[in-house]
């Protein structure tokens, strides 16, 4: 691995021992109060925090005000660090809000009709967003811009007008769940609010935290009895290559009300240089689909397709998520009904009690559903990113080319508009997360990741480079369907799934990106219609693949499917190229 000055921070949450919990939670409660007071006090000066995005955030806070309570300067700095980070995030959102403010229009709101309440016009929002996003970004902001527009529309639905300023629609972001970064202190050996020493041989860390007692007096003897935390193997492995940074103390709240403190143990690890452009031989291209979340293929720089397609199918998973969403909607309706029932009696009336009891239960249940839903989306994003990296490594690709998130294309063929929207929302969340995860994982492994222009990639023949039509299926070639799942080229006869064609086209764009860079030393994201984008020579099934299968063909799995671990067959990777080696790696 070639080392560089580049580094990436990895965070590992470690639960504090039971004996330390009470003190740690008390510390977090006090910190949260101070942090929230700082955020409230500095909210009118939000723009100040947009001026600087990196370096210690506490310095920005300290420049504007001083500690509201005399509880130790370094303790205050750590709290100021957290307040400053919150305000920086908000200031960045405010800058994005300035981008969407001019395009907010009444067309984004669907007026109330007799049988339909007022709502958001998704199509108008999508179109406005598409115009807004400029070429030359990976679209990573798309999800953020979208959420800001939605937030502004919600404001409209409540108030009858769009917000004139960001602050008008954004509640002041006070912390509900406490978090205290020790980055404002003087390090593990000299810290005045924490001390930490690591014993690699014993695989443990000794940690002492300064905390207040139940009367609010800060301990003077806090350094004397450090707690012992054992470090799991992956952390030890990272520590040997990297360096430890100031940790963060954080509270976890369970839905049943219990809470406990964890230490985010943060290790800065060196990362390899990204693969040199002139040494890249193979490119992995992937396309987002709807039923098939990701389709991936590999091509080489001479324009040969060197792998069969891999499909990551999430059909049953989407079904689970749709059902959980339904459950969420149902619970929300029940809660609204019970709240109305409760409020039909005056305060203090005993007839309110039954509704109040049921409400407590339903809210827990709703909370649980949301967490399940979000955790699944995150898990799927990680899993898909891991699969792409695994394929890239196994097939020797140093560049992954993916469609820019800008497209976030509507997902075609749901049975009705509502279902389509659900699918789309699901998919856009997973995609945003997948891109984010993939980007940092690529960074950690030295594989390059480049976004590509998605336009027309699913209506272009990858073999001869001519525009091609899509159809519902190979059996329906008499009727062209704009978003059909099957592509068939009238010029050369190539045919295959539309996602497969798109993944090949995106890989071709990746190849063009490299060849263009090698001749001009400039980065350029070609579009698929560009004449510089070379057609692929087709290596049909039956002819030899350039990359030999990793195990003899007789060992190919039955039907070439891998059901991915822990997902009860809901997510599967399939290809005629799936091998036992991959199965082992995925397992
Ligand atoms: Zn063709």
Give a short overview.
40% of the residues lie in helices and 17% in strands. It has helices at residues 18-42, 57-64, 73-100, 122-132, 142-159, 166-169, 233-241, 315-343, 353-394, 417-445, 498-520, 580-586; strands at residues 7-15, 109-110, 119-120, 179-181, 194-199, 204-209, 227-230, 243-244, 248-253, 259-270, 282-288, 292-300, 310-313, 397-403, 448-452, 469-471, 486-488, 495-497, 561-563, 572-574. Strand 9 (248-253) and strand 10 form a beta hairpin.
Which features characterize this protein?
single chain; 587 residues; alpha+beta; 7-stranded mixed sheet; 5-stranded antiparallel sheet; 12 helices; 20 strands; 40% helix; 17% strand; disordered C terminus; binds zinc ion
How much of the polypeptide forms β-strand, as a percent range? 15-25%
Please report the distance between the alpha carbons of the first and last residues.
25 Å
How would you classify the helix and strand content by structural class?
Answer: alpha+beta
Which hetero compounds are present in the coordinates? zinc ion
Shape assignment: globular
Mean pLDDT across all residues, rounded? Answer: 83
Strand order of the largest sheet: 15-14-11-12-13-20-19
Largest sheet: 7 strands, mixed
Helix content: 25-40%
Low-confidence stretches: 410-414, 540-560, 577-587
């Amino acid at each position: 691995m070639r080392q560089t000055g580049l580094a990436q921070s990895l965070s590992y949450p470690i639960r504090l021992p039971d004996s330390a919990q009470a003190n740690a939670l008390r510390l977090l409660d006090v910190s949260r109060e101070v942090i929230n007071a700082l955020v409230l006090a500095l909210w009118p000066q939000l723009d100040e925090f947009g001026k600087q995005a990196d370096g210690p955030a506490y310095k920005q806070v300290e420049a504007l005000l001083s500690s509201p309570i005399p509880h130790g300067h370094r303790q205050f700095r750590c709290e100021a660090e957290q307040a400053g980070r919150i305000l920086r995030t908000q200031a960045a959102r405010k800058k994005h809000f300035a981008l969407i403010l001019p395009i907010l229009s009444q067309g984004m709101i669907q007026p109330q009709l007799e049988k339909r309440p007022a709502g958001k016009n998704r199509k108008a929002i999508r179109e406005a967003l598409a115009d807004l996003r400029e070429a030359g970004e990976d679209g990573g902001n798309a999800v953020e811009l979208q959420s800001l527009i939605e937030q502004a529309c919600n404001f409209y639905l409540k108030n009858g007008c769009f917000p004139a300023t960001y602050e008008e629609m954004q509640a002041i972001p006070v912390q509900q769940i406490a978090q205290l970064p020790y980055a404002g202190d003087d390090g593990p050996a000299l810290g005045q609010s924490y001390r930490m020493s690591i014993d690699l041989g014993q695989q443990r860390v000794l940690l002492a935290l300064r905390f207040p007692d139940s009367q609010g007096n800060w301990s003077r003897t806090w350094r004397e009895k450090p707690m012992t935390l054992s470090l799991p193997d992956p952390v030890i492995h990272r520590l040997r290559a990297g360096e430890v940074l100031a940790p963060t103390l954080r509270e976890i709240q369970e839905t049943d009300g219990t809470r406990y403190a964890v230490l985010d143990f943060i290790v800065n690890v060196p990362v390899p240089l990204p693969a040199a452009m002139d040494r890249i031989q193979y490119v992995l291209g992937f396309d987002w689909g709807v039923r098939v979340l990701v389709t991936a293929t590999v091509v080489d720089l001479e324009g040969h397709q060197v792998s069969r397609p891999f499909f990551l199918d999430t059909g049953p998973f989407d079904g689970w998520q749709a059902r959980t969403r339904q459950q969420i909607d149902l619970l929300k309706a029940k809660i609204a009904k019970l709240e109305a029932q409760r409020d039909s009696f005056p305060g203090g009336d005993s007839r309110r009690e039954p509704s109040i009891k049921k409400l407590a239960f339903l809210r827990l249940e709703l909370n649980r559903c949301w967490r399940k839903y979000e955790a699944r989306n995150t898990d799927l994003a990680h899993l898909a990113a891991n699969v792409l990296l695994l394929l890239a490594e196994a097939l020797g690709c140093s560049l992954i080319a993916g469609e820019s998130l800008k497209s976030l294309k509507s997902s075609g063929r749901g049975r009705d508009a509502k279902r389509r929207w659900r699918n789309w929302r699901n998919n856009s969340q997973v995609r945003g997360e997948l891109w984010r995860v993939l980007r940092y994982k690529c960074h950690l492994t030295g594989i390059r990741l480049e976004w590509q222009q998605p336009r027309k990639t699913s209506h272009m023949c990858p073999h001869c480079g001519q525009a091609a039509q899509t159809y519902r299926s190979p059996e329906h070639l008499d009727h062209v369907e704009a978003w059909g799942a099957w592509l068939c080229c009238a010029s050369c006869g190539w045919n295959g799934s539309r996602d497969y064609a798109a993944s090949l086209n995106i890989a071709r764009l990746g190849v063009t990106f490299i060849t263009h860079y090698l001749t001009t030393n400039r980065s350029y994201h070609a579009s698929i219609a560009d004449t510089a984008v070379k057609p692929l020579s087709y290596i049909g099934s039956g002819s030899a693949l350039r990359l030999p299968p990793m195990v003899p063909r007789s060992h190919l799995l039955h039907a070439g499917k891998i059901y991915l671990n822990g997902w009860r067959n809901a997510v599967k990777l399939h290809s005629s190229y799936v091998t036992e080696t991959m199965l082992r790696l995925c397992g």
